[in-house]
């Protein structure tokens, strides 16, 4: 129904920046919520940020506030995560996700997941 493909991950030095992209295909509803998550090896997957397709309202985890920005390009059906001032603690696989409910996003239970893109921050 909905396919999500992340890109833009890579290796970056501490203090640097990356911009992740999530290409959305299939049917996207105007009331869907798009989220970004991350998971480091041996750790649980955690919420990073979400954005509403319609209206553009956003929500961020404390770890992302002030450094990361989630956005969406309506014409391209693409969600972005702009990450600045990266630190080694940000190293993880970053996942894009979609759900009709923000509560499922916050509970790390979205209906649709991408396959993830690796972000590695060197010290």
Write up what this structure looks like.
The protein is mainly β. Helix content is 4%, strand content 52%. The protein is built from one helix and eleven strands; from the N terminus they run βββββββββαββ. Strands 2, 4, 5, 6, 9, 10 and 11 form a seven-stranded mixed sheet that branches. Strands 1-3-8-7 form a four-stranded antiparallel sheet, with no helix packed on it. It is globular, with a radius of gyration of 13 Å. The model has no long low-confidence stretch (mean pLDDT 95).
Structure summary, number of beta strands = 11
Query: Looking at the structure, what is the overall shape?
Result: globular
- Give the termini separation: 40 Å
Global mean pLDDT = 95
**How much strand content do the residues show?**
over 45%
What's the helix and strand layout?
Elements: E1 2-7, E2 10-13, E3 18-26, E4 33-39, E5 46-52, E6 58-60, E7 68-73, E8 78-83, E9 92-99, H1 102-106, E10 112-113, E11 117-122
Parallel strand pairs: 2-11
Antiparallel strand pairs: 1-3, 3-8, 4-5, 4-9, 5-6, 7-8, 9-10, 9-11
Short structural summary:
By secondary structure, this protein is mainly beta. Helices cover 4% and strands 52% of the residues. The strands form two sheets. Strands 2, 4, 5, 6, 9, 10 and 11 form a seven-stranded mixed beta sheet that branches. Strands 1-3-8-7 form a four-stranded antiparallel beta sheet, with no helix packed on it.
């Amino acid at each position: 129904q909905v396919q999500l493909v992340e890109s833009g991950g890579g290796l970056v030095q501490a203090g640097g920046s990356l911009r992740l992209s999530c290409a959305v295909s299939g049917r996207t509803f105007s009331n869907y919520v798009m989220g970004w998550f991350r998971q480091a090896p041996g750790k649980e997957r955690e919420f990073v940020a979400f954005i509403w397709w319609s209206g553009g309202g956003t929500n961020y985890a404390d770890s992302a506030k002030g450094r990361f920005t989630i956005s969406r390009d309506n014409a391209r059906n693409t969600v972005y995560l702009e990450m600045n001032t990266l630190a080694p603690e940000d190293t993880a696989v970053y996942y894009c996700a979609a759900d009709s409910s923000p509560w499922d996003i916050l509970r790390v239970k979205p209906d649709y997941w991408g396959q993830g893109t690796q972000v590695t921050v060197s010290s």
